[in-house]
Specification:
Oligomer: heterodimer
Number of helices of chain B: 15
Shape of chain A: elongated
Radius of gyration of chain B: 23 Å
Helix content of chain A: 25-40%
Number of strands of chain A: 8
Helix content of chain B: 40-55%
Strand content of chain B: 5-15%
Structural class of chain B: alpha/beta
Strand order of the largest sheet of chain A: 1-2-3-4-5-6-7-8
Largest sheet of chain B: 5 strands, mixed
Number of helices of chain A: 4
Largest sheet of chain A: 8 strands, antiparallel, barrel
């Protein structure tokens, strides 16, 4: 044990510390209270302050002209309040909103998601809702409403660039029909959020694109491939969420549940599914 | 900007929402056809009677998917329909009327439609096979077009015969007269060509439709069959069902001679293999066995399901042997068979008239009497053919003296009967 030794240097240190701290707390009545986390900067500038006149502005090392520095400081003070003032005055409401929204929501409004679900393919067997197939894919979402500078449209308008795949293989051992469908679409959407500034909402979407279809007939091992491309219309509704993952990060969990229809020529394919991804 | 976007959206909508394939007949499309080397090949064909290539509807048939047909003697609706006519019976068993199918195609650079999925291949080939079968009956067998109106084909329906099993029937293609329609059932065990792709099987089924229209006058539940089914032993019902099956196989054989594969005496070839397929090979010398003959006379129709096919194959193989060497004879015999289905001439009554005559006494409706109608409808100038048919039928069916008398007309024999007493030859293969 070296307790005796510790006591021997601890007391002088504490006393010394109090002695050095005394000038910091000895402030003028007009000087605003300095918070502990500002102490460091205060300390750094304290030596310079002592060399200057009390009324003269602080002279930065890179500024020789004190008047110019004073003007700059005033301007900075004005700038910090300007966004709030403009928004409060309402004479530049939209511009004010835009500035505020960027302060409130620092996200860029893009998302990447993987999706999966059930595709009810237009049925050659006359099934009521179509032939059930598993479908997978992915999509990129951009909230382009942020560009429009309108509070109402900021998060209400966005669009998807989407890819979906569904495959079907049916037949007997001798004769098999193998079919692959690749859907590529761009679809703008309009979303109604559940309350002001909510991260959740319901949306409707209409867009277009094309489907690339590749089909192969197998008869006794002999393959006869054929492919084709067709324009399509995509439309549907869904629920969308951008759940915050943490207070410190801009990254959010993007998810959706949707009922989407693809009309290709005279055929209708219906997708019921969900997606999960990341929003920034 | 908004106008441009609206115009672009409208143009896209027009492009994507239309574009249904052409349906003005003839429509060029690929179907799976049995080629000369015995392989199914995607072959360009013309559907001459199709009016809607997407819903697969035309003069020959219209396709209905997703139907539910349930025959259940415990079903109150079914029992209430008894005796109220075909429409009531049809409504009672058709639990879900189904809906149109949507065939899918890719168009090649020549404008020919290619089925884009397995079921569309199956549907297109079904239509093509039935169209060819209808052509055969109109052009070769001389059935009038008016006798062959559009039929319904229930594609992959749920077909339940509840008295035998609650499980839906599979692996079959049927002409089911109570609903006046073809049923192309789902496949489960079939590993080779599905039933609908097999032209011989569909011609066989189309022959049942022709038989129903002529012999039963298009009745869903024919009166003679209703009457005969009430007895314990049903020899008349067994005989007429065996003839229906056998003559359908013979038509399938004759029709196959006009295909690229050429004459196919094995109806089930390419779909089933092994003993089941061999048992329907018309080129084999099938003959009546003692046990089978007893069953024909004594069994109830419910116990004689397999026997119908065995006896039918014997009849068909006799006709095959008689006419296989000459395309002209095949045609003459095919016409005679169809002509024998119904004939109001009292000297040579058809099967329909015989069935009516013996409605209350099915023991009178024998194979020998029914086949005499066939002989009588072979034109008199075709004596050699007629003699061959007489001898082959008498030999294969092992007619007794009493049956020979019924077959030839005995004392009432006329110029249209067998020209000579049938020669009974040795018959070695017994089913």
């Amino acid at each position: 044990m070296k307790t005796a030794n510790l006591h021997s240097w601890l007391l002088p240190c504490l006393l010394g510390g109090l002695t050095l701290a005394a000038p910091t707390f000895a402030q003028d009545e007009d000087t605003p209270y300095t918070y502990p986390d500002e102490e460091e900067s205060e300390k750094k500038s304290s030596s310079r302050r002592r060399t200057q006149d009390e009324d003269s502005p602080y002279a930065y090392p890179d500024e020789e002209n004190p008047e110019r520095a004073q003007k700059r400081r005033r301007r900075q003070e004005e700038d910090t309040a300007e966004d709030f003032r403009r928004a409060a005055e309402g004479d530049e409401e939209e511009q004010g909103y835009e500035r505020m929204s960027r302060l409130d929501d620092p996200n860029t409004g893009v998302a990447f998601e993987v999706l999966g679900g059930a595709m009810f393919l237009s049925s050659p067997r006359g099934q009521l809702v179509g032939d059930l197939l598993p479908a997978v894919g992915g999509r990129f979402t951009w909230e382009y409403g942020r560009l429009l500078g309108s509070e109402a449209l900021r998060e209400a308008l966005w669009f998807d660039v989407r890819y979906t795949y569904a495959g079907q293989r049916e037949g007997t051992k001798l004769i098999v029909g193998d079919r692959q469908l690749h859907y590529a679409t761009i679809a703008p959407a309009y979303e109604l959020t559940f309350g002001e500034s909510s991260d959740y909402g319901a949306y409707a979407q209409v867009g277009g694109g094309f489907v690339y279809e590749r089909t192969t007939l197998e008869v006794g091992g002999k393959l006869t491939p054929l492919d084709g491309t067709q324009l399509l219309i995509q439309y549907g509704v869904g629920l969308r969420g951008r759940t915050k993952l943490s207070l410190e990060s801009n990254v959010r969990l993007a998810w959706r549940v949707e009922l989407m229809r693809f009309r290709r020529g005279y055929q209708d394919d219906t997708f019921v599914g969900a997606s999960l991804g990341t929003a920034f | 900007m908004v106008r441009k976007l609206t115009a672009a959206a409208a143009a896209l909508a027009t492009l994507t929402a239309s574009c249904a394939p052409p349906s003005q007949p003839p429509v060029k499309v690929r179907a799976l056809v049995l080629s000369s080397n015995g392989e199914y090949t995607p072959t360009e064909v013309e559907l001459k009677t199709i009016t809607d290539i997407v819903a697969m509807e035309g003069q020959v048939m219209k396709v209905v998917g997703g139907a539910l047909i349930r025959v259940d003697s415990q079903d109150p609706e079914f029992n209430a329909a008894q005796g109220k006519g075909d429409e009531a019976y049809k409504r009672a068993v058709l639990k879900d009327v189904g809906r149109p199918v949507t065939a899918s195609y890719i168009t090649d650079e020549k404008g020919v439609l290619w089925p884009a999925d397995f079921h569309t291949w199956n549907l297109v080939t079904t239509y093509y096979n039935l169209e060819r079968a209808r052509d055969y009956f109109i052009n070769t067998a001389e059935v009038k077009v008016a006798e062959l109106p559009q039929a319904t084909t229930y594609y992959f329906p749920e077909f339940v015969l509840a008295d035998s099993s609650d499980e839906p029937q599979v692996d079959n293609a049927i002409y089911f007269s109570p609903v006046q329609a073809f049923l192309v059932l789902p496949f489960k065990e079939i590993e080779k060509a599905p039933m609908a792709l097999n032209a011989s099987i569909l011609t066989h089924e189309y022959a049942h439709l022709v038989f129903n229209r002529r012999v039963y006058e298009g009745q869903g539940v024919p009166v003679p069959l209703q009457s005969w089914s009430l007895d314990g032993s049903t020899p008349g019902l067994n005989a007429i069902k065996a003839l229906d099956e056998g003559l359908a196989d013979f038509h399938a054989y004759v029709a196959s001679c006009q295909t690229s594969y050429n004459c196919n005496p094995r109806v089930l070839y390419t779909t089933l293999e092994g003993p089941q397929a061999e048992a329907r090979d018309l080129s084999k010398k099938w003959c009546m066995g003692t046990e089978l003959k007893q069953q024909l006379q004594l069994a109830n129709f419910g116990q004689f399901t397999e026997g119908q096919y065995l006896v039918g194959t014997i009849v068909a193989s006799a006709l095959y042997e008689s006419a296989s060497t000459s395309p002209a004879w095949r045609q003459v015999l095919a016409r005679a068979v169809v002509a024998a289905y119904s004939d109001l001439d009292t000297v040579k009554p058809g099967l329909a008239q015989l069935a009516k005559t013996y409605t209350t006494d099915q023991y009178g409706f024998t194979l020998a009497r029914a086949l005499r109608a066939l002989i009588q409808h072979i034109p008199n100038g075709e004596d050699e053919l007629k003699n061959r048919v007489c001898s082959n039928l008498a030999t294969r069916l092992r007619f007794t003296d009493k049956e020979i008398a019924e077959f030839t007309g005995g004392a009432q024999s006329g110029p249209s009967d067998c020209p000579q007493t049938p020669t009974i030859n040795d018959c070695s293969i017994t089913p």
